[in-house]
Amino acid sequence: MISKPEKQLGVVPASRPVMPKLNLSFRLKDKRRRTIYGVIMLLMVTTLATIPTIIPKGVNLVAATQGLIDNIRIMFLHPAASNTSFGSLVGALVQSIALAFLTTLIGAIFAFFIALMASRNLAPRWLIDIVQSAMAFVRAIPTILWVLIYSVALGLGANAAVIGLTFHSVAYLVKVYADSIDELPKDTLAALRAMGVGFWPLVSQVILPTVMPSFLSWTFIRFEINFANAVAVGAAAGAGGIGYQLFMASGFYFDFHEVGMIVYLILAFTIPLEIISYKLRTRYIKRAGK
User: Fold this and answer.
1) 53 versus 247: which is more confidently predicted?
2) Which of 24, 75, 119, 172 shows the smallest number of beta carbons within 10 Å?
3) What is the rounded distance in angstroms from the CA atom of residue 135 to the CA atom of residue 115?
4) What's the pTM?
């Protein structure tokens, strides 16, 4: 009878020496964090040091603070249309909304065709570099500066505001439209080209239906940005609208009752706009990033 062999100790295989790993990412992260904290502290110290130079001599801070609180109370607790009618303010708000809508619509149309020349899935490398560099240059300059530039060329008025807002909208939307197209799988597009599908049928029947939800959400976000810019350039470019009314009420009439009414009208439009924009970002953009 063969008995079971007792459990024997096997030969332990020789293990390779393991080199200690340096956690470079942790060190870099700590270095980056220290840099950020250092910059924040420098800005705080600079701000605290320059505040005394901003306050004019002889100003009673207690009285000034009390006056500020009183003005805020007048604006938000007692709003009224004093120097103009409520209907005129609503009409000015509609004018600013129309300016934002028009510039967004025109910018989206131009941006779609330019984005086809900036997409890595559709255009050659040399053309992509040219288009993306030009659009980056336009985006680097704030919208208000473009409006002022066109105001010098065309004169103050709605024309300069429309062209300036549209110009920056095109540059912004070209980037996001091209990024949305680049998220499509290259293999699928290459296979369709190999099957003989032309460029425009590929764009109209494959690319556009696929990226349309992302296009719509980005365009709506740009509309939200353009409305804020339309309010800002209302007085700067003489484009009118609710921004011009706000400038007149605060800078000329010093009527805080009317300023409060204008602020409430702007909030009545921007708060629902922000809610819709947030829902679109959650539904489409975040889903596309997964």
Assistant:
1) 247
2) 24
3) 10
4) 0.75
